[in-house]
Amino acid sequence: MTVTTDSPVTTLTDAATAGRGRSADEIYATGVRNQWYAVCPSGFVAPGAMRRITRLGVDWLLFRQANGKLHLLEDRCPHRGARLSLGKHLGDRVACWYHGVEVAGDGTVTSVPALPGCNLEGKQLVASPPVIETAGAVLAYFGDARHPAPAELTLPEPLTDEGTEAILCYAEWNVGWRYALENVLDPMHGAFLHHDSHTMADGDTQARFRIRETERGFFFEKTDQRGVNFDWVELCRTGVDWMDLTIPYPPSAGPGGHFGIVGMATPIDADRCGVFFWRYRKVTGWQRDTWRFLYKTLIEERHWNVLEQDRTMLEGLPRDADQAENLYQHDLGVVRVRRMYRAEAEKQAAAQSGS
Question: Can you tell me which residues the record assigns to a coiled coil (predicted)?
Answer without folding.
Answer: none
